[in-house]
Amino acid sequence: MSVIANLDEFILEETEQGIFLTVTGDDDQTQRLKVTLDDLEEIMEIIDEVFGVEVEAANDEEAE
Predict the structure, then answer these.
(1) Do 8 and 19 contact (CB within 8 A), yes or no?
(2) Radius of gyration of the chain (CA)
(3) What percent of the chain has pLDDT over 70?
(4) Residues 42-51: b if buried by 16+ CB within 10 A, e if exposed
(5) I want to staple 24 with a disulfide (CB 3.0 to 4.6 A). Which of 9, 37, 48, 53 is the partner?
(6) If DSSP codes are grouped into helix, strand and coil, which group holds residue 21?
């Protein structure tokens, strides 16, 4: 297991092989992870707990 400090960028992509989350730190270290929809839901819950980001509110703003 590795740690990417100071997350600089993330990319979420869906391919024929599955859903992939690619994260890059400000030191250009990159990890590409295959994830499931359940994984993404858990990731968003953790982001909400840590940063107080309300996903539903952001989705509502985009819909407007």
Answers:
(1) no
(2) 13
(3) 78
(4) eeeeeeeeee
(5) 9
(6) strand
